[in-house]
Amino acid sequence: MKIIDSEIHILHPEACKASFAKYSEEPVVQAVHMHKDFDAVRDMMSFKALDSSMRKNNIANGLLMGLSWLDPGIQRENNDYIKELVKADRRFKGLYIPNLSDIKQAAKEIEQLDESTFIGIELLPTWQGVHINDAELQPVVDAVTARDMFMMVHTHHMTQTATGDTPSRFFSFTAANPDLKIIAQHMGGLVCLYAEIPHIKEMLKNVTYITSVSSTMRFVEFAAEICNSNIVFGTDFPFNHCHDQSTQIRYIQNSGMSDAAKENILYKTAERLFGFGASV
């Protein structure tokens, strides 16, 4: 069965060094470079490692993105690297991460994105110093909507934070932007489960959920009973709990979900939404 990974993060080579931006207050440095697993994951952060993992796991295509940096120069370098990889390898499509220190400039950059490389943007609100439902982000939202692109949004679970990228903020954001094509990381903090309620389902009809919940994959099975046609497989590789793409694939393949649900999640929905057509 074909597989598409709709959430792969990759840093430009300079940023993979342990000493990169060492004395900065960059959230990426705090979360990645200073993480107890950094030594274990460092060798998986290269494109060579990604390519090897995809071939090993029969992953045909991937949606590539960097991480969000406060420094505009570092963010530009990360985005440029994503652009370089996507242009060189047709297995991939990219997501652009705008620097939100200047909202008008961020909106302008989105307006000028090359859609043959970038199919949308990604926001990691807490790391970028904002909340997803902040009114100040509207020019960015409008720019994405006007171009009919996707916006991937990082969302925590309710057990992780009461002040950061909360499911409640995500829900209010989706309700306020019915014309925006939203991709929700980490199963949208399980907002997807509320699609069992008819009027909530209508409010969430523009949202696609990513299976990047590597330590709690059972949640994907719960959600698949409600909305398997708008769930796409994504690993958050290499920064997931298992630091591989294999664990989540095996879970879905061995789960009790129907074959049709597995096909939708592993490749069919992503193929349709993101325009992937290449094979391994």
TrEMBL record:
Keyword Hydrolase recorded: yes
**What are the alphabetically sorted keywords of the record?**
Hydrolase, Lyase
Q: Which GO terms describe its biological process?
A: secondary metabolic process
The record's Pfam families line, in alphabetical order, gives: Amidohydro_2
Q: InterPro entries in the record, alphabetically?
A: ACMSD, Amidohydro-rel, Metal_Hydrolase
Q: Does the keyword Hydrolase apply?
A: yes
Q: Which domain of life is it from?
A: Bacteria
GO function terms (MF aspect)? carboxy-lyase activity; hydrolase activity
The Amidohydrolase-related domain covers 68-276
Output a single Gene Ontology CC term carried by this record: cytoplasm
For this entry, the protein name equals: Amidohydrolase 2
Q: Where is the organism placed in the taxonomic lineage, from the top?
A: Bacteria, Pseudomonadati, Deferribacterota, Deferribacteres, Deferribacterales
